[in-house]
Structures are given as C-alpha cells and as structure tokens.
Amino acid sequence: MAARVAAVLQDAWQRLADQQAAVIAAIGDNARSREVAARLAQFQAAITDFQQCVDSEARAFVSVQLPHLYEEGARAAARAVGGHFSWTLIHREALQSLASDSYADFLRRSQQEQRMAGAFYRAVRDAARREVPLLAAGQTTALPAAKALADRLAAEHQLTTVIYRNGARMPVQAWAEAASSVAYNAAP
Q1: Which residues form the domain of 99?
Q2: What is the count of structural domains for the chain?
Q3: In terms of DSSP H, where are the helices of the chain?
Q4: Residue 105 and residue 157 in one domain
Q5: Can you give the pLDDT of all 188 residues of the chain as single tens digits?
Q6: Do 154 and 179 reside in the same domain of the chain?
Q7: Do strands 161-163 and 169-171 pair parallel, antiparallel, or not at all (unpaired)?
Q8: pTM for this one?
Q9: In terms of CB atoms within 10 Å, which end of the chain has fewer, N or C?
C-alpha cells in the first residue's frame, strides 16, 4: 500500500516537474508571450492537479490504509507474543488522533510544495512581463518599439493613418503606441 501511495505522489510530482521544465524551456527559447502564457497556464493547472492528487491520496491513506495497517500491525504483534488483539473504541480513538496528525502533516507538506510551485509561477510571470515584450520588440521597450513600428509602416506601406471599422481614424504613431502598450501589458 505504501508503494502505491508513493507511486501516485511520485507521478503527481513528475507531472508538476515536467510542466515546470516546459515553462523554463519556453522562456529559454525566447518564446513569444502567448506561448509563455500558455505554458504558465499549464503549469498552474499542474500545481492544482498536484495539490488535488496529494490531498486525495492523503485522505485515502488516513481513512482507509492507515486503519487497516494499524490493525494488521497490532494483530501481528499480538500473534508474535502469543497474545490476542481486539479492535476497541480506545484503539479507534487513538488511531483517529494519529490520523488527524498524519493528515495535517501530509497537508502541510503538500501546501509547502504548492507554495514553492506558486512562487516559481509568480517569478516566471513577473520575468515574462518584463522580458517577453523586450524580446519580442528586439530588446526595446513599448514606446521605442511603437516608434519603430510606425516608422516601418510609413516607410514600407506609406501608412500614416489607421482606419477602424466604424470609420474612426487614428494616426499610425498613436495606434502603434497603443498597440505596443496593450501588448506590453498583456504579456504574462
């Protein structure tokens, strides 16, 4: 039984570690903000999945496996010394106390792992907010990127005004600044 619990927890941890590696790889490849955002969303889902898996296994262990193991161990110990063991209310209460402590320990440990994964998520998200727009814009900030875009549109396409579907007109420089600002703020 303990091997099964360990295998389930190992599998949950491996899925979380795989998603973390995917996030790091996406950033290491100078990925665009959408790919980084998608990887971060997958990583965040893996954090939630890990927490649910650990919580489920801890509950199952404490409510099903621990009582069985405790009773079997007590019976084996009694047999070893030539005695008899009866499962009584005192044993159940002692086990409930032990189970509460064990579950709390499991829960604290899994919450610590979730906090560590959450800290990694926040660090990546914050770095992406700073770095992805710079990478996407050629190591520059939103305003110089907007000026470069407006200049390129004017030079390559003789575009000086952007016309919206409703007929509204906006100078290409102002449009590029707004678009760059939105792209910068939308970065994960």
Answers
A1: 2-134
A2: 2
A3: 2-28, 33-60, 66-80, 89-136, 142-157, 172-186
A4: no
A5: 667 777 777 787 777 777 776 766 665 555 455 666 677 778 778 878 887 887 788 778 777 777 888 888 888 999 999 988 888 888 878 887 877 777 777 777 777 777 777 776 666 566 556 655 665 555 666 667 667 767 776 776 666 776 666 667 778 777 777 766 666 555 54
A6: yes
A7: antiparallel
A8: 0.43
A9: N
**Domain shared by 96 and 17, yes or no:** yes
Query: Do 121 and 167 lie in a common domain?
Result: no
Residue 175: closest CA among 154, 144, 150, 138: 150
With 0-12 / 13-18 / 19 or more C-beta atoms within 10 angstroms meaning exposed / middle / buried, residue 61 is: buried
Q: Look up residue 110 and give its two tokens.
A: 């899994």
40 and 121 belong to one structural domain: yes
Please tell me the distance from the alpha carbon of residue 150 to that of residue 169, in angstroms, as a whole number.
Answer: 15
Structure tokens given for 134: 């710079």
Q: Do 111 and 151 fall within a single domain?
A: no
Residues 6+ apart with CB under 8 A from 54: 9, 12, 106, 110, 113
One domain for residues 102 and 144: no
Q: Of 89, 111, 134, which residue constitutes the final position of a domain? A: 134
Provide CB contacts within 8 A for 118, sequence distance 6+.
47
Whether residue 150 sits in one domain with residue 82: no
